[in-house]
Task: structure prediction
Amino acid sequence: MKLIYVHTGKFPSNSPSMTFVMYNAISLSKVTDKLFLFLKDNSVESTADIMRNTYSINMPSNFYLIRIKSLLGLKTNWLFFLQVYFRIERQLKTEKFDAIITRSTKFLPWLVRIKKKTVKVFYETHDFFADLSITDKKKTNTQKRLSRYEKKYIPQLDGVFCLQQTQINLYKNAITNYDKYYLVRTGINKIYKANFKERKYLSYIGSFDSHKGIEDLLNVFSEIAVGNKLLLIGGKSKKEIQSIEKLIVSMSLSEKVIVTGWLEKEKIYKLLQETLIGIVPLQPTFFNKNLTSPLKIFDYYSCGIPVLGSDLSTTRELIQENQTGFFFEPGNQNDLKKKLIAILSDIEMLKKISDNIYEYAKTLLWDERAKLILNIISGKENE
Result:
């Protein structure tokens, strides 16, 4: 089987979406004959060096990463899509491909235009635009256009990959003349075994956007007396990192909180192997309640880390209460503090849950996800 995968992300970048795309594409390449990945070029460094140094991945021989440069210095999705469209059309004239997958809602018109009887097309959605009336999105012209795209083009696709059942439910209610939705969860790249006795940090990994709940976490940490330091691993930009560092200083938390900035994947996993609890303090926004599938939960699981997360429908799909983690009321700092203190008082329980997670993690590997996608494309999703 041969696949084409299209993403509008910049290569390389600190975006979680790029991490997702890289692991997804590499896993798909392991179970296919050939995979083409189209991305926006964002570096003069060689592809092999970026893959190795940034994502800790060695390039397989059947994996082709096509870096599209901006035309005339103009950085628009339209020009990117135009170049991708003609590259794919040329490729299809000389070689048979089985399917094309895109993460981009804006690429849907081009995807449908490419669609031929011999090529299946799939949309890997990470959002929801089909019914803006039920979301908290601003009703901008761009949002309205994306809504029209989903309603018009999704019924013409061979399938839509969703990360959460809550997301599937939204689409089924919004687009009633279509039912080819498939639950294809995020994956784990590798399982890292660690000595539980060496675990000492409480960790958060990801961006510091307001809806991620970092301020709640810092407020709670300023009120509890624990010997464990809080690790904040991430931050999408220098500005975001500097902003959170300024807040930490203003709260007199410099001795209790460590901000690492964005790290290469292997450095992240080294710190996670020293982590006792992974925290997911999401705010109860529409996106978090219905759409998010936090990569951080899968990163925690890869290192056998019990998760303390906001109690939302989406996190309920990923965290098994008292088996792989615990919940607190989203936005409720007192409940977060209470749960954190209780969990830290029972280290033996955390050790048991860590052992549970290592077993559960085996079912969530990216390679298993790739096999599921291949079965869906082949019409064998029930096997």
